[in-house]
Amino acid sequence: MSDPVAVPEPASLTLMCLGAVGLLGYRWRRALRRTH
Q1: How far is CA 35 from the centre of its chain?
Q2: Helix (H, G, I), strand (E, B) or coil at 17
Q3: Distance between CA atoms of 22 and 24, rounded to whole angstroms?
Q4: How far apart are the C-alpha atoms of 24 and 32, rounded to whole Å?
């Protein structure tokens, strides 16, 4: 009954979260450095 596309495996979900957090943190640090 479960849809494999709607519920990704924990490993890929963790990698996606880490990638998103890393990208956001990188852009945030660059923005901070530019404003100050």
Answers
A1: 24
A2: helix
A3: 6
A4: 12
DSSP one-letter string for the chain: ---TTTS--HHHHHHHHHHHHHHHHHHHHHHHHHH-
Length of the chain: 36
The tens place of each residue's pLDDT in the chain, 36 residues long, gives 556 556 668 899 899 999 999 999 999 999 988 877
Tokens of residue 2, six digits: 């479960």
* Backbone CA torsion sign across 17, 23, 24, 26: positive
